[in-house]
């Protein structure tokens, strides 16, 4: 049997390949009890990172309705102020009397009220680039202004926190290809869809063109061996779980969209107890230069999908959210003033959401710089007051238990004194 039989376009499709019918050996070696991690035999913290690619308009996501300048600069795009009970569906959802949520984010309000959702505002990269490509690279490598960094910050967490019991599913990206943030020496796998098991090698492979070949510890008479064998076994285990028949719990209803499907599958991986520690996915469509809309329209449609997917995952996981934190990010914000085509252009600072049962929610964190012309960055954008590495660092240390921040964020002096306090 030739191993190339299994290779296809630098990936592996196992939908119809009946390999290793038995339960994977690495699962046999550990407890299989419901709710217990099958790889380690104990509970494992999970970080889910979601990238809003295209630069979401943070000012219409977390609405500063208490600031008059917001309405002066956005005559057609501003979200109306909340007015109390009986607010229309067009108004911002009030959070604290000054900030509110875009009405399409209504599923987030119960999480806020339960103090399971926190916001970090005026956060982002200190680099002033307005290039999507560069800004995404800097956010995923966590080295603003440095393009030569070989790995991503999530991968460096895995590198600096070695785990002898780690499974092939320790780091999973629900994307077609391994994202920059998970590239590096530590093992990571990109899975486009659990239902058909189309998997790309990611950091297991020295070359994407070689697919899974470089992870094989192959002897002359052994087609599959070592880590490669266990990866195939792990995939076969997921096949036995039967992803296509998965039933969400607690009334969770995922959007019927690529993002909704990614969130559903991350939930399934967590419930399956296959050793997941870091999960990643992304959602695009945020580059709203033209006809952005306000309470309705282009941005609202993307936010509805975004909020629907996250809130469904939280409901579906139930008490398992005790061990899960969700972080959202976007490469930069958008201009404070709307442009001439009823949209917004590339800006600077933005807003992040942090969700979880251990989050100190119900609060907007970070220093708000204001939107007066004299307060704006370069006279046009929300100014930066929190470096995104301080948010990443807090989650790495407090949630994942990795205190080696100098290695995770090379060239940056991050410490607990810079944390915003979103985790207890």
Explain what the structure shows:
The protein contains eleven helices and 15 strands. With about 425 residues, it is an alpha/beta fold. It has one domain: Alkaline Phosphatase, subunit A (3-Layer(aba) Sandwich), CATH 3.40.720. A hairpin with a 2-residue loop joins strand 1 (about 5-10) and strand 2. Helix 8 packs parallel to helix 9. The radius of gyration is 22 Å and the shape is globular. Mean pLDDT is about 85; it is low at about 1-40 and about 200-225.
Question: In short, what is this structure?
Answer:
The protein is of the alpha/beta class. The protein is built from 11 helices and 15 strands. The chain has one domain (3-418): Alkaline Phosphatase, subunit A, CATH 3.40.720.
Supply the helix-strand structural class: alpha/beta
How many domains comprise the coordinates?
1
Instruction: Report the total helices.
Output: 11
- What fraction strand? 5-15%
CATH fold annotation: Alkaline Phosphatase, subunit A
Largest sheet: 12 strands, mixed
DSSP summary, beta strand count: 15
Low-pLDDT residue spans: 1-41, 198-227
Taken from the alpha-carbon principal axes, the silhouette is globular
CATH class wording = Alpha Beta
Helix content: 10-25%
Mean pLDDT: 84
First-residue to last-residue Cα separation: 54 Å
CATH 2nd-level architecture: 3-Layer(aba) Sandwich
Q: Could you tell me the radius of gyration in angstroms?
A: 22 Å
SSE run: EEHEHEHEEHEHHEEEHHEHEEEEHH
């Amino acid at each position: 049997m030739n191993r190339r039989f299994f290779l296809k376009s630098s990936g592996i499709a196992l939908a119809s390949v009946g390999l290793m019918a038995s339960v994977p050996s690495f699962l046999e070696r550990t407890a299989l009890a419901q709710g217990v991690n099958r790889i380690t035999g104990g509970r494992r913290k999970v970080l889910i990172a979601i990238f809003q690619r295209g630069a979401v308009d943070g000012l219409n996501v977390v609405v500063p309705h208490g600031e008059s300048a917001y309405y002066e600069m956005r005559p057609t795009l501003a979200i109306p102020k909340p007015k109390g009970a009986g607010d229309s569906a067009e108004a911002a959802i009030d959070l604290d009397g000054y900030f509110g949520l875009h009405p399409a984010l209504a599923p987030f309000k119960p999480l806020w009220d339960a103090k399971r959702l926190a916001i970090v505002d005026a956060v982002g990269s200190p680099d002033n680039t307005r290039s999507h490509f560069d800004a995404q690279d800097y956010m995923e490598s966590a080295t603003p202004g440095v393009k030569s960094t070989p790995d991503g910050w999530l991968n460096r967490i895995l590198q600096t926190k070695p785990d002898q019991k780690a499974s092939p599913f320790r780091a999973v990206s629900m994307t077609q290809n391994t994202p920059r943030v998970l590239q590096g020496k530590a093992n990571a796998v990109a899975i486009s869809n659990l239902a058909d098991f189309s998997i790309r090698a990611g950091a297991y492979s020295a070359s994407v063109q070689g697919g899974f070949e470089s992870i094989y510890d192959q002897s002359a008479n052994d087609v599959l061996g070592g880590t490669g064998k266990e990866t195939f076994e792990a995939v076969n285990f997921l096949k036995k779980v039967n992803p296509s028949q998965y039933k969400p719990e607690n009334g969770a209803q995922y959007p019927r969209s690529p993002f909704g499907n990614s969130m559903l599958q991350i939930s399934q991986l967590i419930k399956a107890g296959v050793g997941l520690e870091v999960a990643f996915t992304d959602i695009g469509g945020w580059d709203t230069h033209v006809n952005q809309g306000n309470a309705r329209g282009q941005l609202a449609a993307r936010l509805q999908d975004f909020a629907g997917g996250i809130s469904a995952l939280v409901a579906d996981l139930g008490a398992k959210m005790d061990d899960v934190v969700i972080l959202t990010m976007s490469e930069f914000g958008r201009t404070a003033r709307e442009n001439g085509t009823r949209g917004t252009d590339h800006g600077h600072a933005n807003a992040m959401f942090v969700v979880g049962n251990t989050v100190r929610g119900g609060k907007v964190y970070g220093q708000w710089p204001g939107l007066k012309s004299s307060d704006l960055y370069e006279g046009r954008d929300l100014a930066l007051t929190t470096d995104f590495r301080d948010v990443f660092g807090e989650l790495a240390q407090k949630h994942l238990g990795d205190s080696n921040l100098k290695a995770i964020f090379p060239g940056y002096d991050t410490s607990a004194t810079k944390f915003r306090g979103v985790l207890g």
